[in-house]
Amino acid sequence: MQLVPSWVLLSSGCAPVLLIGGWTIAASLEGPDYDPVTQTISVLAAYGTQGFWVMTGALLALGACHLLTAWGLRAAATAGRVALGAGGASAWAVVLLPAPSSGGSLRHGTMAAIGFILLAVWPVLAVNGGGTAPWGLRPAPSIMATAVMALGGAWFLIEMHRHGVTGVAERVVTTVQSVWPFVVAASCPHRSRTRERQTVGEKTKHRQRR
User: CA dist 6 to 13, 74, 88, 190, 201, Å?
Assistant: First the structure.
């Protein structure tokens, strides 16, 4: 099993902190006009809102974290890493196509849905090996993670249809999706920066001797 760079813990760990911190600060800037129980995160990132720049910055940072994690998570299968990275890129697309403050947007909703699907399926696509693989890359936990995200997505759609606790449902499922990359990264064996330099140096010396 290939070792994972230790900085992947930082990139994956920052993702949920930035996301939750972003919507918390942006909501506080909006004040009582914004209801986090019934309103979505997209409302906070709409043009003209008080917390626009905060939520936009948080989404951009979230996308960067997922891309970095996907790049460094070498123990995962390639398909899963691609899906995670594409999920991060979709966060940028959501920023480029913000929902108007007056209501929803088909383009924004489509990109948000694509991002959700990518981040929901990446755990099963990242499975690499059986019982010898890191816990986060084994079939059972990965399937369970994807199932929980899928159920969360269904809950969100139901609440949106019935005009219920849409904001709560969205926050729960996006939190799970932002935390799972860290769970996977934490379960993998890590390579410190010093050890990585030593490994590269040993390989270079070996090539020179040959």
Answer: 11, 12, 20, 5, 18
The CA distance from 22 to 47, in Å, is: 16
pLDDT in tens, 120-152: 999 999 998 766 789 999 999 999 999 999 999
pTM, two decimal places:
0.86
Residue 4 near residue 185, CB atoms below 8 Å: yes
Instruction: List strand residue ranges (DSSP E) for the chain, in order.
Output: 4-5, 190-191
Could you report the per-residue pLDDT of 94-126, keeping only the tens digit for each? Answer: 999 887 766 667 888 899 999 999 999 999 999
Q: What tokens does 45 get? A: 């990132």
User: Are 115 and 83 a contacting pair, CB within 8 Å?
Assistant: no
The residues spanned by each domain of the chain are: 4-200
